[in-house]
Model the fold of this input.
Amino acid sequence: MEPYDLSAAEASAAIADGSLTSETLVRSCLSRIAARDPVVKAWSYLDARQAIADARECDKEIATHGGPKTPLHGIPIGVKDIIDVEGMPTTFNSVFYQDHVPSRDAECVRVVRACGAVILGKTDTVEFASGGRKALTTHPMNTGHSPGGSSSGSAAAVGDHHVPVAFGTQTAGSLIRPASYNGIYALKPTHASVAWPGAGQYAPSLDTIGWYGRSVDDVAMMAAAYRLRGVDQAAPAAQTLTVGLCKTPYADRCEPATLEMLESAGKRLAAAGITVTEVEMPDGFVELSEMHRRVMFGEGMSHFLAEYLEQGEALSPDFVSRVVGGDVIPAEALREAYDAAAAGRRSLEAMFDGGPDVIMCPSATGEAPKGLTSTGDYVMNAFLTLLHVPLLAIPAASGPSGLPIGVQIVAPRFDEPRLIAAARRLAPLLAPDRI
Done:
């Protein structure tokens, strides 16, 4: 095993016991990138010299203080290219921002820097994380397929062992869906749990910063760094657990293999002694996909207005349509969407009162789509993003093309501890070869 094959949690333990240095880990990641990124194209910007210098500084600090100051000390991290890193370009994958170099880190980057992490570089994304140009990133297991989006580069970089953890964002399904496609883990925290300033905004009522890893411990380690309420990275797996198996109101959009995977996963869990029940989302939830669209496009109008006024018709039609075209959302429709979202949050969380500990449903409609013109259908994620609940993606199976399919587990708002404890119990049963 090369150092780049280590999960973040494994690398952290090795740095703590002195069997691995940050510089060795960073150099290993850079060698993996050099070998693989000409094909995968996950990265939009790398500064190998600075990354090595930062890793050496971490090693000095660790030696001086007799060990790492946090579990993230010396761990390399990839940053989605809508999130500012001081001195690195934030291009948003837009022709209009190729020379934009921020002078300050985004708030989320400041946190991991303070924890001692090494910022390895910027990962490619869909333009403005919302439409327009697609990333050049290809699926690491089959370059004829998309890795998903908009967190395309981050998901592929973690899945292909370029870096152990990376930031993504989710406005509809841009964290959880690519995790499914790439066979990795992801945590989308409760909405607004991670500070947004310094990241490109799309729809403030939906936009959420999260991260990818290659184990439950990886995403839990990041959750602890952000002090998500009640999270303790050392929390044990749940000893008793009830899982509500849910096809969601959008099962008709799923490929047959996805629904078969969910049924098979339920049987595996039941055979292991976990209580599995079938649950259905409340009446009216089928409308939440449309309500999500209204909020996303409605708030997107104000956030793309300045771009439209400055760039005019040179701006991608996706963004023009949100400001002056067919995707402009009338006031009454937007009010209805906000009201439906508020009611839906109460209805979903009522399901946990005397019900399952977590709800488990598909994290995508199927395998990664062919070609790079589509990043896939986000219908399995968008309504949950609208409801602000935390989501954790777990690999579960392979589809008919041999590409991964995963599940997402859901907990009430601000109950990431419940989610992580459940994931620790479920992951060895769902993805024994990926923990």
